[in-house]
Amino acid sequence: MADLKSTFLGITSPNPFWLASAPPTDKAYNVNRAFEAGWGGAVWKTLGEDPPIVNVSGPRYGAIHSNERRVIGFNNIELITDRPLATNLNEMRQIKKDWPDRALVASVMLPMNEETWSKYLPMIEETGIDAFELNFGCPHGMSERGMGAAVGQVPEYIQMASEWAKKAASVPVIVKLTPNVTSILPPAKAALDGGADAVSLINTINSIMRVDYDSLTMYPTTDGMGTHGGYCGEAVKPIALNMVAEIARTKETRSIPVSGIGGITDWRDAVDFLALGASNVQVCTAAMVYGFKIIDDLVDGLSSFLDDKQLTLDQLIGKAVPSVTDWQYLNLNHVEKAVIDQDLCIQCGRCHVVCEDTSHQAITHTVNGERHFEVIDAECVGCNLCVSVCPVDGCITMQQLTEGTDPRTGEPISRIKANWTTHPNNPMRKTD
Amino acid sequence: MNSAKRQPDIRGNRLDKDEIAINFSDLHPPLSRSEALIAADRCYFCYDAPCTIACPTGIDIPGFIQKIRSDNLRGSAHTILRENIMGGMCARVCPTEVLCEEACVRNTHEEKPVEIGLLQRYATDPIFDQQVPLFARAPPTGKKVAVVGGGPAGLSCAHRLATLGHDVVVFNRDSKPGGLNEYGIAAYKTIDDFAQKEVDYIVSIGGIELRNNTVLGQDFTLNELRKSYDAVFVGIGLGSTNELGLDQESLTGVDSALEYIAELRQADDLSRLPVGRRVVVIGGGMTAIDIAVQSKRLGAELVDLVYRRGPEQMGASQYEQDLAKTNGVTIHHWAKPVELLGDEHVATIRFERTALDSNGRLSSTGAQFELVADTVFKAIGQLLDVGVLGADTVGLEIRNDRIVVNDVGRTTLRKVWAGGDCVSGGDDLTVTAVQQGKIAAIDIDRRLRKE
Best interface-test mutation with A: which of B41, B44, B47 has the largest number of A CBs within 10 A? Predict the structure, then answer.
C-alpha cells in the first residue's frame, strides 16, 4: 500500500486527511474519536475572544436530500466555538500531547486590530499547535460583526491580517478563503502578499436551503425567522475544485500551497483536489453525515489508487493542473462523436429525448420500425449530454474522429491544433 | 381402500380467526412513503416508455412516478386515473410481471423492474381512502346511456360517459356493483372492501344511477334499452362456467370455482366458511390459482391443481404459479380429468396423462392416476350467457362465444357498444375491460355529439 504520510508546510501527518475547523473539532472528546478512527489531523473549531459567542438552540443545519435521503448538500448557521478560550486551549494542549503524530491546527477569528492578534496568537500557540488557520471564510453571523467572510471579501484586509498573524506567530499561517467572491485570485494573492504560508479553501457558500411548504417561511427557522447559512457538502465540490485549480494554475498565486476543502466524501474526491493542486485536504460534511469512520475508505481508497497508478502522494499533487486552461486555448479542430454500445443499451431513450428536445436532434428513436437509439454523426456536435444522462455506465462514450471528414460540417479532420485565438471568426484573432 | 365409501370432510373452523386474518391480509402490503420514494427513484423516466406501451390502458407511468418523487400525489393519481379509473384495483390485481413491469428497462439493467404496481397503489390509495374528487363533469349533454353490467368494463364506461356530460344508468345483475372485482378476485388481493370504495369513488362524479339486482333478459331486454336510451354499452362478462363434460358432474362437491370465490368474498367470517380437507382444482388460469391458494389459506390440507398442458401454456402468470407453490399447492401438469367417482358426493377424480402428439395436438397417453377429493373445483373458463341477450337482438354478431366488436367497441347492432370479458379479442384482464369500457365511452360520446 502506498505511503500516505503527508507533509504540509513542514507539518507531518500520517495521511493528508484533516478534519476541517467545524463542529466535529469543537472539543477534545470529538477530536480523540477522530484520531482513534485514523484522521491525519484536525483544525480545531475556530477560536475567538472571550466572552465566547453564543449559538442558537435550534436548527443549525439544513440539508438537501436525494429521494433516498442521501445528503447531497448541507447548510449551517453555527458560529465559532461557544466555549471559553481557556477550556479550548487546555483541551488542545492535551490532544497535542496525546497525539504527537497528528497535525493540530488552531483556527482563529479575531476583530480587525493588530493588538488583539498579537495578544491572542502567542497564547494559543503555546498549546503546541502546528499552525494557525485564519478564518476569513464563514459567511454567516460572524461576518455581520466584521469578521469571517467580511474580511475574506476584501483583499486588503486579508493582507493586513495575514501580516499581523505572521508577526505574532512563529508557526505557519494558513489563510482560509471564502468562495463568496467574484474571483478567488485577489484574495489568494492578498494572503500571499501578506506573508501567509498557505491558503485553505473553500469555506461555505451563502445559501438558503428552501421554504417550508406548509408555513411558507424559509426553512429551517429559529422561532419563525431564518438567516442565510453556509452551503457545503458534495454539491459544492465543483465550485471548490475550480477555485483550487485557478490558484494552482495562475502565475501570481501558484507558489502558495493549498489545503483543499469542499464536499470531499470519498477518496476520489480527494484525488480531484490533490490532482488539481491541493497539497492536502480537509473534510467536514462527510464526517457530519456519516461519522468519522469514512476515513477508512479515504485512506485505503487513495492508497490503492496510488498503487494502481504507481504514483506517490507528492507525484499526484498538481498532476491535473496543466490540463486546465482558458476556453480560448481549446483545440477547435478536435472532433468527437458519441457512440452508443448497443449491447449495453437498455432502451430507456433518455439520450434520444434530451438530444431531441434540448440539443442537436442527433440520436434516433426508431430505425426500420424498431425502437433503436443510435447517434447520427451528421448532427452530433459531441456535446456529451447523452453520456451525462445515460443511466448505464459506459454505454455511451465519446470517440474522437482522427481521419476523414466530419459528417456534420463536411470539413476534413485536421491534426493541426487550432484555437479561438487564431480562428477566422474571431475579430480579435492573432495575425502573423 | 374403496374411495367411493369415503365420507366427505368439508367444514369450517379449520383455522382460528388469527390464522385466517394473517392468511387473508394484504398479499402485497402497501409501500410506506420512504419505500415509495426509493422505488420511484429507480424509474429512469424513459422516453416513449416501454411500460406505458405495455399498459393496456396506456397510463403515463414515468409521469405518475415522477409526481410521486415530488410528493405530488394528487397529480400522480390524476395521471393514473384519467387513463384508468380503476387504477386502484389494477394496481392490486394486474399481472404486472407480464405487462408494465415486464417491459421495464431495469430488467435489462439489473433484472429487477421498478415496482410499478405498488407505486400505482401508493399514489391512488389516498384518493380512494379520502374520496378526493379529481374529475369534474363536462356540461350536460342531455343524452342518456344505458350500461349493462356493473363490472370493470361497465363502470369504466359509465365514469367516462359521466365525465363527458352524459347521464348513465348502470344495470347491475348482482346485489353489489363491481363485478369480478367484488365477487371474483382473491380476497387477499383486495382487502378492506376496496372494490366498493372504488365504485363509490366512480359514482361520486355524479350522473351515474346504479340499479342493482336488475338482470338482463329477466327484468329488461337489450331491445328495450335501445329504444329508451341514446346508446347502450354491454359489459356483462361471462355469465356461466365451462363444464368438465364428465358423467357424474352433478355429484355434490363438484363446484364452480367462481361461485365459491364469490361466497368467500361475501363471507362475514372466513374462519367459518366450509372448505374441504382435500381439494382438487381443475384449470390453469388466474381463477384456478386463486381458488387453490384461498382453499389452502382457509385450511385445506391438500390442494392439487391439475392442468392439461404445461406451465408455459397456463393462463396464470409465472408469479401466480409460484404463489401457488409457495402456498403449498401441488401443481400437476399434462393431465386431464376423465372420471368422477363417488355416491352422491365426489370422492375421487381420475385423470389421464396427456402429451402433445406428433401433430402438436393434445392427446392422451393412456396412463391414469386418481386423486382423492372432498371438493373438486372447476376453473376451466367461462361462457357468454347468450340467452340473456334476447332472441330479439337480431343482427348482434356473436363469434366464438364472444360478442363481436370493432376496435372502438361498436357491436354489429346500431346504438350498441360492448366491452370486457364478453367481447372478442379480450384477454380476461380487469385492465383490458377498463380500457374497452373507456374507448367505447369515447366513441359513444363522439357518436352522440354528431347526432
Answer: B47
Q: What is the pTM of this model?
A: 0.91
User: Is residue A199 left, alpha or beta, with left meaning phi > 0 and alpha meaning psi from -120 to 50?
Assistant: beta
Average model confidence (pLDDT) for chain B?
Answer: 95
Contact B109 A371 (CB under 8 A): no
- For A:382-421, CB contacts with B below 8 A are 391-392
**Is B321 in contact with B289 (CB distance < 8 Å)?**
yes
What angle, 0 to 180 degrees and rounded to 10, lies between the N-to-C axes of helices A155-168 and A185-193? 30
* Geometric angle at alpha carbon A109, from A194 and A249, rounded to 5°: 45
**pLDDT score at B5:** 61
pLDDT(B310) > 50: yes
C-alpha–C-alpha distance, residues A120 and B29, integer Å: 63
Phi, psi of A160 (to 5 degrees): -60, -50
pLDDT tens per residue across span B71-102: 999 999 999 999 999 999 999 999 999 999 99
Locus of grid cell 384495483: B89
Q: In what order do the strands lie in the sheet with B208-211?
A: B208-211, B167-171, B144-148, B231-234, B416-418
Query: So what's the pLDDT on residue B389?
Result: 87
* Nearest residue, CB atoms, B108 vs list A347, A350, A371: A347
Chain A residues close to B45, C-beta within 8 Å:
350
pLDDT class for A108, splitting at 50, 70, 90? very high
Reported as a pLDDT band with limits 50, 70 and 90, residue A253 is very high
